[in-house]
Amino acid sequence: MLLRRVTEHVKTQNWFAVGIDLVIVVVGVFIGIQVSNWNDDRVTRKKADVFTERLAQDLRKEAWGYQSVISYSRQTNANQRRVLQALAGERELSDEQFLISAYRATQFREHNRHRATYDELVSTGTIGLITDPVLREAAVGMFTTGFLEEFAERIRDSEYRQLFRETVPAPVQEALLARCGDRYPTELDYESLDVTLDYPCSLELPEEAIRLAARTLRDAPRLVPALRVRFADNQTALTDLQDGNLVVVESLKTIRERQP
């Protein structure tokens, strides 16, 4: 329609009308481009909002998981200290409590990661959609380093853990796992983190079985040096998690305190 009008105006040499038609064309193209840009911006903002909220949810879970590893490691560290003090004659522990603390000294907590959103952003090259510097800093700090995995692997392969498992009779280990093992709190429940391992329990085994298992473990030649290494590794990891990673810790704290 517009093309026909322009052609007619050219034929009649109505240049003013031709100029008006050209202005209409230019304005129409400009408006069309602007509308397209506005739509693109709206889609981008919506996508950014979705990814930002998803990443924030993931990092709230990461913050809880990070704290759960710290809290759990404090509990294992406390049990390691009790056993070392008992072996040095600085603390009285019953045979049952000695076995329980010695068992808990072997334990470690692995954190299930929540990195799906971050991996999607990186793989699609859309990490720039996250404009919140706290989220970006925390995500990069949490997902580009493997300190949590390295920590768990070092403990899993510790000499002390191996020594305990090969020394203590299987029925006693079974009772320790069933009655004094890990408690698994609900995700994002911070209040229960301090009693996931260090809580009162009883093995409910014959006294002689407990006495024999405790004596066998106490007499293990490498028990003390292996436990000292385990204790030192645990303390080093706690220091790294709490003090050596302050940027990530502060970012996670900020995210944790935000309203979901």
Structure, briefly:
The protein has 260 residues and is mainly α. The protein has helices at 2-11, 15-87, 95-104, 116-123, 133-143, 147-156, 159-167, 170-180, 207-218, 223-242, 246-257.
List strands and helices in order, with pairings.
Blueprint: H1 2-11, H2 15-87, H3 95-104, H4 116-123, H5 133-143, H6 147-156, H7 159-167, H8 170-180, H9 207-218, H10 223-242, H11 246-257
Helix pairs in contact: 1-2, 2-3, 2-4, 2-5, 2-10, 2-11, 3-9, 5-11, 6-10, 7-10
Strand content: under 5%
Count of helical stretches? 11
- DSSP E strands, number: 0
Most strands sheet? none
Mean pLDDT: 86
Computed CA radius of gyration, to the nearest angstrom: 32 Å
Shape: rod-shaped
Helix/strand order: HHHHHHHHHHH
How many angstroms separate the termini?
Answer: 55 Å
Estimate the helix proportion, in percent: over 70%
Poorly predicted residue ranges: none
Classification by helices and strands: mainly alpha
Q: Top keywords for this entry?
A:
260 residues; mainly alpha; 11 helices
Could you characterize the architecture of this molecule?
The structure is a single chain. By secondary structure, the protein is mainly α. The protein is 72% helix and 0% strand. The protein is built from eleven helices and no strands. It is rod-shaped and about 115 Å long.
